[in-house]
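Quick look at the format.
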Amino acid sequence: MANRKWPIITLLTDFGLKDPYVASMKGVILSINPQCTLVDITHQVSPHDIREGAFILAQTYPTFPKGTIHLSVVDPGVGSARKPILIVTKNYFFAGPDNGLFTIALKAETVKQAVVLTNQKFFPSKISSTFHGRDIFAPVAAYVSLGVKPESFGPSIKSWHEIPFPDPAMKQGKLIGEIVHVDAFGNLVSNIDYKNLLKVSKGRPFLIKIGKRTMRGLKKGYWEGKKNEPMALFGSGGYLEISIREGNAQKILKVKRGDSIQVEVRERRE
């Protein structure tokens, strides 16, 4: 399935850009397949934050052409008993640690095959216990881009680790969600999508409550907001978010990931 003529490998890590880790991974990949196109999704995932990495990957991966190899490493358990895996779906490849990093992405994919990466043939003679990104995942991604079959890397598995990712719920007539991501602008992204909201509101007016603030209805875009005044809108990822025009909603509202957000429908008065 990988496009061998124009192979694309994406990279998502929590390595940052100060140290040599990202460049080392790229060097390994290009040494095996110099024809690869390497695309950085991000290397600024909060250190060890698997859930944040999972959310960012899920928001990004489907924008790439079919056959893209998504190499993702947020791996606080590196060197432990957690398995290195390769998962093949109908459209993509996912290589990385079996720690739940692919949980959200795989909800939208049809998994065709999954293997544990054990075949030493594809790894350097000495594997660092602290850098599987360079010594296991990078070479596997590169060899996949050359057309090596997934089963060549190790035995098949039928299940993989998943992390809990909350769904919004109805409680006492209110739609209760939570903030699942805070982006670089301080926008507070919730787990409430448009379908959830439409199902609850049914065209009726509603209030959105977060922290000590209450907002009425939705804005179409950031330009409709007033400075220093929070607003609700659906962001590019399709989720309800709270933003402040030219400001930082997280700092001003003092809301963090995991905090509650509520949608309360207001009945129309005759």
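Next, a different chain entirely:
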Amino acid sequence: MRAPSSELPIEFDGVTVTAGGVTILDNIALTLLPGPPTVLIGPNGSGKSTLLRVAMGLLTPSRGRITWGGLEKVPPLKRAIVFQRPAMLRRSAAANIRFALRAAGVPRAEHGRRVGELLELVGLGQLADRAARRLSGGEQQRLALARALARDPAVLFLDEPTASLDPVATKAVEDIIRAVSERNIKVVMATHDLGEARRLAGDVVMLHRGQIVETGAAASFFDRPQSAEAKTFLAGELLV
């Protein structure tokens, strides 16, 4: 079990991100705490992916500040992110993970054990020698999760990791997310799938037009949404 992380809490204080004169995130105030997965929901273009990139440290706010464990400008050594369509290296599944282990500075003597553990965790133990680019879409996403976990992250950001996957592949990825969370790794995940959000979320953050319109524990959010935007979105109606 992982000890409490110095990366947490992650705090957004008036974070605004603009690009080309367009405001993508607008005065975001948010605290990400240890615990079950935090799931970001909202319509396309609401700012979910940008929020993840700012939290990872890949984007710098145009205004406001973000802190990790109370500190600014913390190197993302204990953070990892998996995108919707991860790129696979032209090598085997096992070699993809070895590359990630080397990049994370893991001693070479530990590589064999760690590769085996990570492949088993994501259900790819029998495919270690298969070319990563020949894996199915669901298998590639699980391999991407294994590569991210090679960093031994305290926080794992996931940007719609099951988009375009079939139900069987989606369940496999969701099972990994649950297993990761049980290891005290904080998962922060964006999804467009409300069923998935219900299954995985400990708490929910809903965005619309770059602003947070509602946050709360998942059970109360889905059963008793407070904002007009959340009620409309959960009813499957178009938000404008």
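The radius of gyration is 18 Å.

See the schema section for token definitions.
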